[in-house]
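Lab meeting, item 3. Inverse folding demo.
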């Protein structure tokens, strides 16, 4: 794979205002894409239609403009997104149905709620032969014992640590894990830059990509970067408006410290000197070393 073969994406969720931790991921994805001469896409994950709001979609575009981050493919603004790029649940269901027909023994309907499940879920409903019905059942992918994913040096045992995976939710919407995987496979995404909290998501999606014979995603390279934490050492949260960037913009605050934090992550010794994306991109040796040291791929399964 040459540098020009890479396709990556920025993939925010419009369930709250973008915070500093989200922006850190945007910047890191952008500079790695530019360094590798990769194609950069914008995908907005509005799978959860109940929590997705236009004000949050607007905030994504305003944040990208404020950071000065351009992309090659994706919606230009909120109206363009809602008209041409929003997730189509009917299309997702059709794709799920095609997978179900191809691998019928792997899927089963499940009536269990979160309250019913104690610990890791291992197919209590698998032999009940239930039908998929909105508000009554979800659709799960059965995970057998000794199902594991080696992602770089990390081994994720899916049976013991994750259990059977929900692909279609009781509310009638596609799960994030499946929708994200289907979109990435369709668009040829083969480089994913994610927070280290999404290591299990990467393992789940890689497992499914191999199981379903997806050629693009199964060969993807991953970078899982450190998270930006609050003063108490906790992960920033949209639900709490943690470090919401619309407040920064309202106060005419510039994104310097976000570029500085990104520089720190890629190993620039005097990161406080980095104030722009151009200065970050000039750190070619650090970017190359960061990419080489942190690239993870599916070594074996």
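The presenter then showed the designed sequence:
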């Amino acid at each position: 794979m040459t540098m020009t073969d890479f396709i990556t994406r920025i993939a925010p969720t419009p369930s709250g205002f973008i915070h500093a931790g989200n922006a850190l991921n945007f910047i890191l994805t952008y500079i790695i894409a530019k360094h590798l001469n990769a194609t950069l896409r914008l995908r907005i994950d509005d799978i959860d239609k109940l929590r997705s709001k236009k004000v949050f979609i607007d905030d994504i575009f305003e944040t990208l403009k404020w950071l000065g981050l351009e992309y090659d493919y994706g919606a230009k603004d909120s109206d363009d997104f809602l008209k041409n790029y929003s997730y189509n649940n009917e299309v997702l269901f059709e794709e799920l149905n095609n997978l179900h027909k191809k691998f019928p023994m792997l899927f089963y309907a499940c009536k269990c709620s979160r309250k019913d499940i104690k610990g890791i879920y291992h197919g209590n409903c698998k032999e009940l032969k239930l039908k998929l019905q909105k508000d009554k059942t979800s659709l799960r992918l059965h995970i057998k014992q000794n199902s594991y994913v080696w992602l770089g040096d990390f081994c994720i045992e899916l049976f013991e640590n994750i259990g059977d995976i929900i692909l279609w939710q009781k509310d009638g919407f596609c799960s994030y894990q499946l929708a994200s995987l289907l979109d990435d496979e369709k668009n040829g995404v083969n480089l994913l830059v994610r927070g280290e909290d999404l290591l299990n998501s990467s393992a789940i999606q890689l497992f499914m990509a191999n199981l379903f014979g997806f050629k693009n995603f199964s060969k993807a390279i991953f970078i899982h970067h450190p998270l930006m934490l609050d003063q108490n050492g906790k992960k920033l949260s949209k639900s709490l408006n943690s470090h919401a960037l619309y407040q920064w913009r309202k106060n005419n605050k510039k994104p310097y410290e976000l570029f500085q934090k990104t520089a720190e992550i890629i190993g620039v010794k005097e990161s406080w000197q980095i104030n722009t994306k151009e200065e970050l991109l000039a750190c070619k040796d650090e970017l190359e070393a960061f990419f080489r040291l942190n690239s993870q791929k599916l070594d074996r399964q």
